[in-house]
Structure formats: structure tokens, C-alpha cells
Amino acid sequence: MQRFGMVIGIKREKLDEYKKLHAAVWPEVLDILHKYHISNYSIFLKDNLLFGYLEYSGANLEEDFAKMGKEPAMKKWYAVCGPCQEPLPTRKEGEWWAVMEPVFYMA
Q: Which of 34, 69, 75, 91 is the most buried (most CB within 10 A)?
């Protein structure tokens, strides 16, 4: 199992919309996340930043994420959530959410 922390900005004018979307995530999106081995997914808000945490239990993260991104329901979900987000200018090439470096873990 791999743990991931990631961060992205949120547009202030889109914050209420983003919260409403995540208060009632579409069931098909949740099914897809499970299908591609994602669990314990949480998103936290502070000021204009979203911090996401998830656990991945599959064998090939890159492949699973690529397949997940091609799912029609995920494309629709990204289309409504994406305009709410503001990617960090310091993110790596190809990232939307900036993946964070783990520095501490206590089991």
C-alpha cells in the first residue's frame, strides 16, 4: 500500500460549489476510485489550499490512474471540479494536484 499527500489551490469564488460537489460525490466516481485501488481518500481545506490524502493498493499506479482518467464518469467529474481548482505553479510537469514528499509517518 502506498500513501499519497497532494495539494492544489482552490478558487475562492468556486469554494461553495466545490464543497457541494464533495458533500455528495457521485456514486459512480466512488466506484471507479475503488475499482482502481484507491481508499482512505480525504480532502482538507485551509485558506485557499486543498490537501488530499489517499492510499493506493494496486500494482501499477501510473497505469491505474491513466485508465481511471479515461472512465466517462471521471471525465465528467474532472470537468466540473477542475474549473474550481488552481494548480500550484511549483507542481511537476504533468501534475494537476502537486504530489507532496512524505517526511514522517507513524503507524
A: 91
Place of cell 466506484: 31
Q: Please work out, in degrees rounded to the nearest 5, the angle formed at the alpha carbon of residue 43 by the alpha carbons of 12 and 59.
A: 135
0.85 surpassed by pTM: yes
| Catalytic residue check, 22 | yes
**Residue 41 CB neighbour total at 10 angstroms:** 15
Q: Mind listing the domains of the chain with CATH numbers?
A: 2-99 (3.30.70.1090)
Residue pair 21/10 in contact (Cβ under 8 Å)? The answer is no
**C-alpha grid cell, residue 106:** 507513524
Cell of 2: 502506498
Determine which one of 12, 19, 22, 75 is catalytic.
Answer: 22
